[in-house]
Structure formats: C-alpha cells, structure tokens
Amino acid sequence: MSKTVIEIKNLKKYYGKQRGIEDVSFSVLEEDIFGFIGPNGAGKSTTIRTLLALLKPTSGSATIFGKNCVEHASDIAGDIGYLSGEPSYYENMKAKEFLSYSAELYGKNNSSRLEELAEKLQLDLNRKIEDLSMGNKKRLELYQRFFTPPNFLFWMSLPADWIH
Fold first, then answer.
1. Of 45, 77, 109, which marks where a domain is finished?
2. Element (DSSP H or E) covering residue 98
3. Which domain, by its residues, includes 111?
C-alpha cells in the first residue's frame, strides 16, 4: 500500500484581497507522478510555493510526509528537491565550475562521475552558463539537485525538448 506524500485540505492563499488559491484539496501517493496544468494565474506556483513554505497559507492545511509544511518546514526541506521554472546561476562561471562548487556545498566529491553524467545529460561542461540554452540550464539544475537525491522533487516546468 502506497503512503501519502502530499496532502492538501481546503488550502487558501490570499495576497490582501487578491486570491492566489482557494479551496484546493488533493493528495499525492508515494509512487504517483503528479502535475499541475492550467492557465497563467490559476494558482499552480502559489500552491507549490505554499508546500515549500515559501508562502504561508491564509487557511487550510498542507503536509508533506505527514508533516505540516509551515510548522516543520526545516525538517521537510532536507527531503525535497525543487527545480524552478527559470533557473538562476552565476552566469560567468563555466558549468563544470558551478557543479564543482555545488558539490563542495553538499560535501560531495563527484569529480569521477561529473563527466559521465554530463555526457548522459548531453551537457558541455566547458561552456559558460550564460552561453547555455534554457534546456541545458535546466539539465545543469537537474544534475545539481541530485548531489543529494531528494525523496520528493518539485519541478516547475519541463523543457519542451525533453517531452517525447
């Protein structure tokens, strides 16, 4: 039997009088692949940012791994990964320099696997980040997020060239 990873009940988020989300309820099981699809302003990002405790809900509840997202944000943070819709980097660094820097931050020495994984992701590590396409910047972000594999991954968008 699968465990519940995310549970949202009657979640609301208002920015003053402006509605962000209203009465959102759903659950995601351990083995599910779950996605938000909707027009701009539908509340997709607001819901995810609320789950990540980047925003405090106006009312309702949200849990990840059975822990309240607001009360246990720091506990949950170590178990989840987040890939933004538009990654932001040190643009003048080369991809390899950025990944080495990130590996040090995570206390990992991934130099032996760096080239192998870059080849699998079709990522030129010798190019400056500012010269990479958006798809390659997303590949770079994906690689960086897996230095310490999360138990759950929030991915804001998928590059069109990855969809087959």
1. 77
2. helix 95-105
3. 95-148
